[in-house]
């Protein structure tokens, strides 16, 4: 799945401008859960049975709220990636 497809999928099921603050707080919460998973070393691609609390799950949760926030602000993350790559190429060669 492309990032733009994931962004659209999340937008289709979870787009609520009144939740802007809530999405941000969830992003911070999920970042904390990612920190815990990293600390506990729950690394690698888990199978379905071992997804809960893994780094993979928490990375996805963070990505979900990044996408939800991008949607609220009408930001295309793939386009932003391309623009940022161009900026970094100038900056770092
Ligand atoms: Mg989580």
UniProtKB/TrEMBL annotation:
Q: What CDD domains does this protein map onto?
A: NTP-PPase_iMazG
One GO molecular-function entry:
hydrolase activity
> What keywords were assigned to this record?
Hydrolase
Pfam families listed in its UniProt record: MazG (PF03819)
InterPro entries assigned: MazG-like_dom
- Taxonomically, what lineage is the organism? Bacteria, Pseudomonadati, Pseudomonadota, Gammaproteobacteria, Oceanospirillales
Highest taxon above the source species = Bacteria
Name assigned to this protein: Nucleotide pyrophosphohydrolase
Identify the residues that the record assigns to the NTP pyrophosphohydrolase MazG-like domain, covering every copy: 23-81
